[in-house]
Amino acid sequence: MKNPKKHIQVCLFILTLSTILSGFAFARKSLKYTEDRTPSTLNPLYAQDMYSVRITEGIFEGLFGWDKMQRLAPQLATSWKLSKDKKTMTIKLRKGVLWHDGKNFTSKDVVFTIKAMISRRTNLQDRYLAQIINSASVLGKHSLQLHFKKQLRRPRKWLCFKILPAHKFPRGHVRRTQYFSQKPVGTGPFRFVRWTGKKIILKRFKRYWRTPKKESLRGVILQSIPDKGIQAEVLRFGGIDNIVRVRPKDLPLFERSKHVRLYPYTTNSWWYLGLNHRRQLFRDKRVREALMLALDRDTLREATLGDGTTISGPFSPNDPLYNFQVSARSQDLKRARALLKKAGWRRKGGFLYKGPRQLKINLILSKSKRSYRPMVLGIIDQLRKVGVKVKVTWLQHATWRKKIFSQRAFDMTLHIWNFDSLSSIHPLFHSKGSLNYIGYKNKQVDILLKKVAKTTDPVIYKTIFGKLHAILHADLPYLFLWSLTNYSAITARVRNVTIHPFNYFHYIHSWKKVEEE
Question: Among 340, 490, 484, 514, which Cα is nearest to 50's?
Answer without folding.
Answer: 484
